[in-house]
Amino acid sequence: MTTYREAVREAMRSAMEADERVFLMGEDVGAYGGGHGVSLGLLEQFGPERVRDAPLSENGFVGAGIGAALGGLRPIVEIMTVNFSLLALDQVLNTAATLLHMSGGQVNVPLVIRMTTGGGRQLAAQHSHSLENYYAHIPGLKVVSAATVEDARWMLAPALDDPDPVVIFEHGTLYNTEGEPGEGPVDLTSAALRRNGSDVSIITYGGSLGVCLEAAEKLATDGVEADVLDLRALRPLDVGAVAESVTRTRRAVVVDEGWRSVGIAAEVMALIQEQAFYELDAPVQRVCTLEVPLPYPRHLEQAALPSSERVIEAVHETLGRA
Predict the structure, then answer these.
(1) pTM of the prediction?
(2) pLDDT band, very low/low/confident/very high, at 322 (cuts 50, 70, 90)
(3) Residues whose CB is less than 8 angstroms from the CB of residue 211 and which lie 6 or more positions away in sequence, other chains included
(4) Catalytic residue among 36, 127, 129, 171
(5) For helices 208-220 and 308-318, what crossing angle results, to 10°?
(6) What is the DSSP pairing of strand 142-146 with strand 233-235?
(7) What is the pLDDT of residues 97-156, one digit of tens each?
(8) Could you tell me which of 81, 311, 82, 319 has the C-alpha nearest to residue 209?
(9) Active-site annotation holder among 58, 150, 170, 244
(10) CB-based burial of residue 75 (10 Å sphere; 0-12 exposed, 13-18 middle, 19+ buried)?
(11) Residue 58 falls in the annotated catalytic set
């Protein structure tokens, strides 16, 4: 048994022990141990050349990571929160994601970017949003979301092995959760079925997985058995797994901590419409964060985020019980 935080740390430690080209870079990742305590102890073990504190300049140190990757290294770049990552979006979109295509396939960018996402910690609007869809929109990137301790432990190695840039999202509420680290490896292109059911598919990812599993357990006491599908890979989406689940249950609710408009949930709903429309017995429902900047007060923040109660309500809607 280990925590999500320790699982990420062990993944980095293992990668750095196995390959001298791997190094970590980001704000406070060295002496402070990372904004979320993920890299505690790595500076002492690997030294300042391989655990490098960066200034408050996301565009600068992501660009430096791209340069290091082009030079043959395997950088892990940590961004403290997804809101701050927008400052580096130019480097991610216009450089990391495009160089392979612009060079006619001659230049790969083997860069891994880890970043924290999500609300639920009373950190207010500038530290709490879920912007995974911004990155999943970009061709040239692989985008994954670790919802379990096992995924937190085992996503990094295949991401570092990938010749192209990979973005790993870690939900901030998960760092203290405990679980079995498993033995890996994790496939960065496949969804994971976390619960079997026959009445409805609840499709989600990241920090919302726990909310959906809680809702599924409550629904079971009322005789409703739900599939809970963890998308895990946000780009590319595992379209086959989504279609297979919906074909079995004939009903679907998509749960996404991002905002409702133009988000991951909207993309999954479109895929269901394209791939499994004739299998559906009811319109697909979605549960997303309300379209407001995330409030600081706990009761308002919780009201804005997806909850098990809202998921259950959406399931009842698709079952015609509302």
Answers:
(1) 0.97
(2) confident
(3) 204, 255, 306, 307, 308, 311
(4) 127
(5) 60
(6) antiparallel
(7) 999 999 999 999 999 999 999 999 999 999 999 999 999 999 999 999 999 999 999 999
(8) 311
(9) 58
(10) buried
(11) yes
